[in-house]
Amino acid sequence: MISNSLVELDRQHLIHPLSSFRGHERDGVRVIQSAKGATLTDVMGHRLLDGFAGLWCVNAGYGQESIVEAAAEQMRRLPYATGYFDLGSEPAIRLASQLAERAPGDLDHVYFTLGGSDAVDSTVRFIRYYNHARGMPEKDQFISLAQGFHGSSTVGAGLTALPGFHAGFGVPFDWQHKISSHYVYRNPVGPDPDAIIAASLAELRAKVDELGAERVAAFYAEPIQGSGGVLVPPPGWMKAMAEACRELEILFVVDEVITGFGRTGPIFASSEEDIVPDFITVAKGLTSGYAPLGAVLMADHVYQVIAEGAGDGLIGHGYTYSGHPVSAAVGLEVLRLYDDGLLENGRRAGERLMAGLHGLADHPLVGDVRGRGMLAAVELVTDKAAKTPLPAASQPSKRIFDRAYRNGLIIRAFGNGGLGFAPPLCCSLGEIDEMVERARRVLDETL
Ligand code: PLP
Predict the structure, then answer these.
(1) CATH code at 140?
(2) Does the record bear Endoplasmic reticulum in its keywords (predicted)?
(3) Could you tell me which of 48, 264, 407, 439 has the fewest CB atoms within 10 Å of its CB?
(4) ipTM of the complex in this document
(5) Are residues 318 and 363 in the same domain?
């Protein structure tokens, strides 16, 4: 049997990302064979609705022929071109220009990476370089949010606050600091938006005071905290934090690796609050997952300081695959699809998703429903009044993921048993309804 031998080969040789090695040896892999639109088929022939767009990335859905064609055509013509030696390729140049055109304010400069983690790493390196260039090398401390996720590379993981990404690694992160998340459902100051914003501002100011403003380089935040459980800040939170950063003279980096490219509606979620950060990081929806690509969007005022500081000297930060022409060609076609109705479809489907999930609020296990557009979560509790989480010892995330799979649905099952949704933006309203229906069955089986 092909599937049995694959499972065995996988067990013996393939290390999976974010996995328990022993747990994986015991439970094995489910091999996905093919996909079309929002439907996956595994090697056993099971059909599944992908309520998570792979890993919050396949925004255009699977089997989009025009993307496949763009990649194949680019591979035929020029499969690789380095950006070193002042060389370049047309797709990378055009994609950089299109991103700059769509980005807010003076975010005019684009540095390509392979994904989100190295985009975050690159911001750290560029910010340090920037501060050296302007004669302030001691400004080398970074602040981010509890429950935040900024990647899994050595530097990006430092800004990530999820404990699982630190436990057991022992990498010293004495240059990075955390302040509390806005987490509306469980905020110690209560759910009032003004109180939450005031508390976040006070914590940021206190942290900068504690470290010394002359030592703090930047503050990082996601417009909606994704991996932390889809935590949506109160309206006005991002704007207030952006203004505080300006006032404190620290850079504001907005990590849009999940929220970018229509996930919450517009191309950049931060534009919903009309802010212009100093950096935006993107990946995932940039190519809709069809090819690896991330990017750093850098504000002109930062770029000019770095450029001036380096003069004719090389700035020693570069990847072999920066601006890979095949990934960039894919990105260009994906951007065209967003304009050609995909963003619009995602907006309609997102309204339906949020309405459907709010319809689950009466379920005895549902403590909170939150999200924006095609990015949502349902948080589960055993006691609604006390907001008691599902007991971690019962491994709720694994059980819920398995139940969803058996019901023909892929969702993200968060550590505390919450359900995360990020369907492809191409979903029909019928597919969204079906996802919500299957999620209700999962909840019923979890009672
Ligand atoms: N930043 C955020 C907000 C993310 O959600 C992720 C991944 O999920 C990353 C960075 C890291 O991206 P990648 O997995 O492409 O390295």
Answers:
(1) 3.40.640.10
(2) no
(3) 407
(4) 0.99
(5) no
Instruction: Compute the distance from residue 257 Cα to the ligand 1 centre, in Å.
Output: 6
Give the type of residue at 86: D
Say if residue 359 is in the same domain as residue 439.
yes
> Residue 136: exposed, middle, or buried by beta-carbon count in 10 A (0-12, 13-18, 19+)?
middle
Q: Reduce the DSSP state of residue 293 to 3 states and report it.
A: coil
Q: What is the pLDDT of residues 144-182, one digit of tens each?
A: 999 999 999 888 777 888 888 888 888 778 899 999 999
Q: What pLDDT sits at residue 2? A: 59
What values do phi and psi take at 194, rounded to 5?
-65, -40
- Are 410 and 271 in contact, with CB atoms under 8 Å apart? no
Structure confidence at residue 1 as a pLDDT band (50, 70, 90): low
Cβ of 431 closer than 6 Å to ligand 1, yes or no, is no
Burial 10-30 (b: 16+ CB within 10 A, else e): beeeeeeeeeeeeeeeeeebb
pTM: 0.97
Q: Are residues 56 and 144 in the same domain?
A: no
| Integer angstrom CA distances of residue 277 from 226, 262, 263 | 19, 18, 19
pLDDT tens digit string along 240-260?
Answer: 999 999 999 999 999 999 999
pLDDT by residue (tens digit) across 321-333? 999 999 999 999 9
Task: Tell me if 83 CB under 6 Å of ligand 1.
Answer: no
Which atom in ligand 1 lies closest to the alpha carbon of residue 294? Answer: 15
